[in-house]
Design goal:
By secondary structure, the protein is mainly beta. The strands form two sheets. Strands 2, 4, 5, 6, 9, 10 and 11 form a seven-stranded mixed sheet that branches. The chain contains no helices and eleven strands. Helices cover about 0% and strands about 50% of the residues.
């Protein structure tokens, strides 16, 4: 079992920055990938960034590429999402996810463990 707890969500103005954190605990050595998803009201959950734990390889959705950076602190089992140049359309609940699969990183069904989310609101 892996437990995930997100933090860092806030309300900011467009153009601002935030850093989200996801603290992982439990049987973390079994995790292959960790990712950030987001879900806006009335929309599907969207995979925005993934990190392969062993290699630190990363991938991003086109909607955030060049603005967001996913990274990990291995010593403390923390996953980060640095978000720059925020836009109103980035407003959503942001979730941390972890899983064992190496397929379709953007598909929420590929992840077993989820945090409860942290809210990000960007005003224009």
């Amino acid at each position: 079992q892996v437990e995930l707890v997100e933090s860092g969500g806030d309300s900011v103005q467009a153009g601002g920055s935030l850093r989200l954190a996801c603290a992982a605990s439990g049987v973390t050595y079994t995790v292959y990938r960790m990712a950030w998803f987001r879900q806006a009201p009335g929309k599907e959950r969207e995979g925005i960034a993934v990190l392969t734990v062993t290699s630190s390889n990363t991938l991003y959705a086109d909607s955030v590429k060049g603005r967001f950076t996913i990274s990990q602190d291995n010593a403390n089992n923390i996953l980060y999402l640095q978000m720059n140049s925020l836009k109103p359309e980035d407003t959503a609940m942001y979730y941390c996810a972890a899983g064992h699969s190496n397929d379709r990183w953007y598909d929420a069904n590929q992840y077993v463990y989820w945090g409860e989310g942290t809210q990000v609101t960007v005003s224009s």
